[in-house]
Amino acid sequence: MAIHNTIGKRGEEIAKEYLSKHKYIILETNWRFHRNEIDIIAKEGEELIIVEVKTRTDDNFQLAHEAITQKKIRAIIRTANAYIKYKNLDCNTRFDLISIIKQGNKCKLEHIKDAFSAIHS
Length: 121
Hints:
about 35% helix, Trna Endonuclease, Chain: A, domain 1
């Protein structure tokens, strides 16, 4: 597995631990629809939370929200809609971003709720 894939998978594990600690219920990880994938699908209360996780290292620094393009947002929304239809869900949905920056042995985590409107407003 390439180093960036290893870093990404570890970031997703950190994000799952963070969400669980904050009382989110993890429903799915790495849920795929065609060529697209949702990193984490969770519930907070009655709301469905679609989570994109971006992990960076201090030597590969780019702000997480800079990596979320309009094309990526459309793909995540399309995949979330497929999940909702597949599971026959009727609930409010929120799109969050978790940014993890690894600096040596430490990680800085930022959780941006309702990220797509926050990023592109």
